[in-house]
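Progress against Task 2.4 (sequence-to-structure conversion) is shown through the following example record, which the project officer requested during the mid-term review.
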Amino acid sequence: MTFNDRSTPLALLRTRRSGKPRDMVAPGPSPQQLDEMIAIAARTPDHGKLFPWRFVTVPDDARQALGEKLAAILRSEKPGCTPRDEEAAIQFATQAPALVVVLSAPVVPHKIPVWEQELSAGAVCMNLLHAAHAMGFTGAWITGWAAYSDAVRDLFGSEGQKIAGFLFLGTPAFPLEERPRPALSEIAHRWNPGYGPDA
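Structure tokens generated for the chain above:
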């Protein structure tokens, strides 16, 4: 299989895979390309037409400032935080040419369950990765401690929202290698009347 094959829609889907943000180099997507990726990502299943997600693009000239804020938050939240930990937080924010933070922003209260709205936010992240791949870039969907910190969340959104992921985008510095994939027989089954835990 040729990886990163974008010759047909099915080849695109079959060959998309994540790259490591630390191994992404320029060129990254331009602001116009990022806007197009976000518009494509927003074409995701969304029960109730609630748009329960938000995108925050972190410009190049703000990445260092974000890193310093992450380091300060880590210092306040992690007992025994070391200078090396703070350096890692700065490196996290400044790696890869482009960064889009995706927020899960459920509409509450609403008849559409929050879980369905959160699933839609996950679908948005996946669509963003597909759009990046289709445009010739690689991407990575990363969480980590920062995604679960309310103080970090407050840099991008508000209470009631969650960071669904940090989406790093760029050009791979090295050829991407395939990762292990489960055998279809391990993850896909055909239902029958005797199917289930008591069968």
